[in-house]
């Protein structure tokens, strides 16, 4: 029988990978882990950055599953 072992460095490695993408909103993404699941929470301004965050997390060694709970929130107001 196999048992998942918590990788204590995984959240740090994912957060570092997000920062290295060069998009400032990704620096504010919260990363938590439970076994092999990485959860992304916080806000980003576009769906593109939400997808970039997810794919970046998936590319980190040790990540088997990603739960992308990022909210897309437009920070610009447009005139009515």
Q: State the secondary-structure class.
A: alpha+beta
Count the domains: 1
- SSE pattern: HEEHE
Going by CATH, the architecture would be 2-Layer Sandwich
What average pLDDT do the residues reach?
89
Q: How many beta-strand elements?
A: 3
Shape: elongated
Percentage of residues in DSSP E strands: 25-35%
**In whole angstroms, how far apart are the ends?**
60 Å
Please outline the major beta sheet.
3 strands, mixed
Helix content: 25-40%
Overview of the structural elements:
By secondary structure, the chain is of the alpha+beta class. The chain has a single domain, classed as GMP Synthetase, Chain A, domain 3, CATH 3.30.300.130. It is about 30% helix and about 25% strand. It has two helices and three strands, in the order H-E-E-H-E. The protein has helices spanning about 10-20, 45-60, and strands at about 30-35, 35-45, 65-70. The protein has a three-stranded mixed sheet, covered by helices on one side. It starts with 9 loop residues before the first helix and ends in an 8-residue tail after the last strand.
């Amino acid at each position: 029988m196999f048992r998942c072992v918590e990788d204590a460095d995984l959240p740090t490695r994912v957060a570092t990978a997000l920062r290295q993408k060069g998009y400032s909103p990704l620096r504010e993404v919260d990363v938590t882990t439970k076994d092999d699941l990485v959860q992304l929470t916080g806000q980003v301004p576009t769906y593109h950055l939400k997808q970039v965050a997810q794919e970046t997390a998936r590319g980190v060694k040790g990540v088997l599953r990603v739960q992308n709970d990022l909210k897309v929130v437009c920070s610009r107001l447009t005139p009515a």
